[in-house]
Amino acid sequence: MKRGRTGLKPKCQIFPVREERPKRQKRRASSFALNPAEDWGNLPHHIVLQIFQHLSLVDRARASSVCRHWNDIFHTPDLWRRFEFELNQPATSYLRSTHPDLIQQIIKKHAQHLQYVSFKVDSCTESAEAACDILSQLVNCTIKTLGLISTARPSFMDVSQAHFVSALTVVFVNSKSLSSIKIDDTPVDDPSLKVLVANNSILCVADQCHGLRELALNYHLLSDELLLALSSEKHVHLEHLRIDVVSENPGQTHFHTIKRSSWEALVRHSPKVNIVMYFFLYEEEFEPFFCEETPVTHLYFGRAVSKEMLGRVGLNCPRLVELVVCANGLEPLDEELIRIAERCKSLTAIGLGECEVTCSGFVEFVKMCGGRLTQLSIMEEVLIPDSSYNIEQIHSEVSKHLGRMWFPDMMPTW
């Protein structure tokens, strides 16, 4: 038994070994903390820049206060190529607004870096004035795309017309690389539209921005003079022209007519231009449109459109590529669709919502268009069975002419 007890003594020798383990771990932790290579402030520039690119502006600003190195990266030009100014009055809007101090910092340090700029303005005159003030100060900018976006009903009624036009002119004159302008969601009764037209500031776009390739605007800003200016020899080929034709008060809005010769001049200069028109009109307001040949390529009717108007489209829109009709009356559109198939040889996509077409007329339309119809979106309720085809037979007949399987839609896909 004594020999057994003496055999326990060597086991007691392990205690000093256990005391050394935490010391070794402590030394490792202290060496890690003191290693400058592992310091967040010493991360490589490109890594911090990539992290910043995934952060919101607020989080990026907070991160810039960590150290001087991160603050320097915060002002890297690559992070300021794209910026959206949000101008809202807290008393009348629940939307957030860009802080005034940040706006001044951008104007002083990053105006020359801005390339993709947009303004979101609420319904207060103060916000419109603030937008004009910012635009007026972007003297050294090299903007490529400019967006003027209304979140509600912006009013420039109390803003000096000279102030508004001169602010836009500053950008147009200094940004020689401007390639895209979008004036979006602006109501037709907004005084700013009248200001733009009356002072010809929209013409300044074509006269000064010879590199302009994309332009989106309200139809009230479109004119023969603008199309001719975009067709001048010194102007690059226009690639995309979007026109919004909107009416909010039926019978109270007057729409002017664009001459056929102006459209032809634009297409001669830019033969591959996409001309996209969105219509939100009432039936009685379509009179000025498509009376002569119009080189529209993409046509969208957001409200009910008459058979007569669709007949004009078939006669006078030979460049049509895509057509969407959300609603029509109760008369079948067989003749109109067949005319469109005959005249619009480039048509590749069509969508019909609350309309009516006989199954025979629809099959004839698809047969004439053939496999070039890459997108055919027709609701089942649109098709009217007749003596030749019923709903069960229509999908196989249409699939045969398309060269692929096709079924009617259960709901609109556009």
In short:
With 414 residues, this protein is an alpha/beta fold. The chain contains 16 helices and 13 strands.
How does the SSE layout of this entry go?
Layout: H1 2-6, H2 15-34, H3 45-53, H4 57-63, H5 68-74, E1 82-87, H6 100-109, E2 116-121, H7 125-137, E3 145-150, H8 161-174, E4 180-184, H9 191-198, H10 201-208, E5 214-218, H11 224-230, E6 240-246, H12 260-269, E7 274-280, E8 298-304, H13 307-316, E9 322-327, H14 334-343, E10 349-354, E11 357-358, H15 359-369, E12 375-378, E13 383-384, H16 391-402
Parallel strand pairs: 1-2, 2-3, 3-4, 4-5, 5-6, 6-7, 7-8, 8-9, 9-10, 10-12, 11-13
Please give a structural write-up.
Helix 3 crosses helix 5 and helix 7 packs parallel to helix 8 (161-174). It is elongated and about 80 Å long. Residues 1-20, 23-34 and 187-192 have low confidence and may be disordered. The chain has helices at residues 2-6, 15-34, 45-53, 57-63, 68-74, 100-109, 125-137, 161-174, 191-198, 201-208, 224-230, 260-269, 307-316, 334-343, 359-369, 391-402; strands at residues 82-87, 116-121, 145-150, 180-184, 214-218, 240-246, 274-280, 298-304, 322-327, 349-354, 357-358, 375-378, 383-384. It is built from 16 helices and 13 strands. Helices cover 39% and strands 17% of the residues.
Helical content class: 25-40%
Report the radius of gyration as a whole number of Å. Answer: 32 Å
Number of helices: 16
Oligomer status: single chain
Overall form: elongated
Q: What structural class do helix, strand and pairing data support? A: alpha/beta
Residues in β-strands, percent: 15-25%
Characterize the biggest β-sheet: 11 strands, parallel
Distance between the termini: 93 Å
Low-confidence stretches: 1-20, 23-34, 187-192
